[in-house]
Design brief:
The protein is of the alpha/beta class. Helices cover 39% and strands 10% of the residues.
């Protein structure tokens, strides 16, 4: 979620663009997470089904619960936003992005 200019600036400053075949920014598509449609757009661009896709995010409601509701397998990057007391904790939790390969491979 965020502005097209702001999100693209972050992606480019971090040098992440070459690692992705698709980048979906909420302002660009006019839909914000946790709306299922934004995840569906990303899946369509990737040519993937939700049940075959992992989603890493730091926001419990927008990222993790939103992705899980559509059937993606979420990985919560904890430490940025607290997990809501009224929700079950996700099965996959990390504190550093370097932990992702150990979960998915």
């Amino acid at each position: 979620n965020g502005s097209t200019i702001g999100q693209n600036r972050k992606i480019d400053v971090l040098g992440l663009r070459p690692y992705f075949s698709s980048i979906v920014v909420s302002e660009t598509v006019g839909i914000k997470k946790p709306a299922p449609a934004i995840f569906e757009i990303a899946l369509k661009e990737l040519g993937k089904q939700a049940e075959d896709t992992w989603f890493v995010g730091d926001n419990p409601r927008n990222d993790i619960l939103g992705a899980a509701k559509l059937g993606l397998t979420p990985i919560w990057l904890s430490g940025c936003h607290p997990w809501p007391d009224n929700e079950n904790a996700p099965a996959h939790q990390i504190t550093d992005l370097q932990e992702v390969p150990a979960i998915i491979f």
